[in-house]
Input
Amino acid sequence: MATITAFGDSVLKGVIYEDDHFKVADTSLQKICEESLGIVVENKARFGSTITRGASVFEKNLDTIRNSSGEYVVLEFGGNDCDFNWKEVSADPEKEHFPMSRIEDFVETYTNIIREIKSLGKIPVLLSLPPIDSNRYFNQISKGLSAENILKWMEGNRQFITNWHERYNIEIFKLAIAEEVPVIDITSIFLEHKNYSLYLCEDGIHPNEKGQKLIAKAIKAHVKRRNIRFDEKM
Output
């Protein structure tokens, strides 16, 4: 079997949020893809990972990538990069606050990773981001904090969370175009549903088990559409 090396955050790791606890889904997208596509996923995704942390994990695994029997390296970042330190926002809503990764830094670091993968003779494949539920996520981030202050910083608009998240998602598609690498759209398959929140956990940001299955479905559709065979270069 060919090996696919993957780097990303909790979405790619298959983490779901249930009963106030995080755990890896029994039917994660990794397990589904391994079984249906006949591959082995060397999953280096980390919970809470930003592009900067991802770059560090990536650098420590260069030999793994170089010696992999597969030619593809999957990357999924952005969901944590666009997040803020909500405790600080709650404490001082009048202050200017910055995301975990500013847009320009996110793009620059992501670009460097893509180019380094290419230099190793491998093909980087980007994943877009699943959408989020602003109301659920707002309730999650404001637990134990001042929801009033956080909403004040958002200028009264909870939808800001979704809009800001989408900014990073758009950059991922732009990156794929600029660097001429494949991007698997896992966003649209959620948006096809009238209420895509049914595929998200109670925290509003992690896909639940049904959401994990949706992502796997989008990946399998991409593989079929591109007529990709993982054993060609083995």
